[in-house]
Specification:
single chain; 245 residues; alpha/beta; five-stranded parallel β-sheet; five-stranded mixed β-sheet; 12 strands; 23% helix; globular
Length: 245
């Protein structure tokens, strides 16, 4: 009977792939992977391993989610070991829960292998701890996805009034809206913000600004990118390390 592994690829740096993830990748019969998984990982497979790309890109879904679910199911009926490889962690806005429910509903055995989420690792590579004693005792991870008609009602903005660190994933395209909403909530114009592009990779770029000017400063950054908002951003000046490695 087939075994499906819903596997996190980590944030980009190949060294941040977990040992357990590497072990199942090395014995996989097929890898079903997305856009954010480091392509170097695919060199670790055994001879004869098949590949299926099901990546989703900005403003364009190569394959709808229900078809991805079906592709995983079909693979489980053909191969013994199926690895569904997803960037970051499968269950932090990765729709891994939906895939697990689909497999469960179809009687397919699966195992979840968490990945290091970009929500904590990318800020760390930028020298920004998401929590810090005396500055921030909590952090929130929020989807930056807003529908085509700019409807941001899927986000509970009132929950973002505190001084907790906020990490927006997939939010670069909507950074103007995000900043406007937070200013409307009462945060000051000089509230610190960082945008990190291609974090943990050699192409990492970090732009630091405020709610008032970050949208302009970050306009030329490439995706994937995440946004960190909070007083912890000020620590980057002293803690940045990755650029000098």
């Amino acid at each position: 009977m087939a075994q499906v592994y819903l596997t996190g690829a980590g944030p980009g740096d190949l060294g941040l792939l977990t040992v357990k993830a590497l072990r199942v990748i090395q014995k996989a019969d097929i890898i079903i992977y997305d856009r954010l998984a480091n392509a170097e990982i695919l060199k670790e497979v055994k001879d004869g391993c098949e590949f299926l790309y099901v990546g989703k890109e900005d403003a364009k879904h190569t394959i709808p989610q229900d078809e991805i679910n079906r592709a995983i199911l079909d693979a489980s009926q053909k191969y013994e070991i199926v690895v569904r490889l997803k960037g970051g962690d499968p269950f932090v806005f990765g729709r891994g829960g939906e895939e697990a429910l689909f497999l469960k509903g179809n009687g397919i055995a699966y195992e979840m292998i968490p990945g290091i989420s970009s929500a904590i690792s990318v800020p760390a590579y930028a020298g920004i701890p998401v929590t810090h004693r005396g500055i921030s005792t909590a952090f929130k991870v929020v989807t930056g996805h807003i529908s085509a008609n700019n409807d941001s009602s899927n986000i509970n903005w009132d929950d973002l009034k505190s001084d907790d660190t906020i990490v927006f994933l997939m939010g670069l395209k909507n950074i103007d809206i995000i900043c406007e909403k937070l200013l409307f909530l009462g945060k000051s114009k000089d509230y610190p913000v960082a945008v990190i592009s291609k974090g943990t990779t050699p192409e990492q770029k970090v732009v630091v600004g405020t709610l008032e000017d970050i949208a302009t400063k970050a306009k030329d950054l490439a995706t994937p990118a995440l946004i960190v908002i909070g007083e912890v951003v000020r620590l980057r000046e002293k803690l940045q390390w990755f650029e000098s490695v």
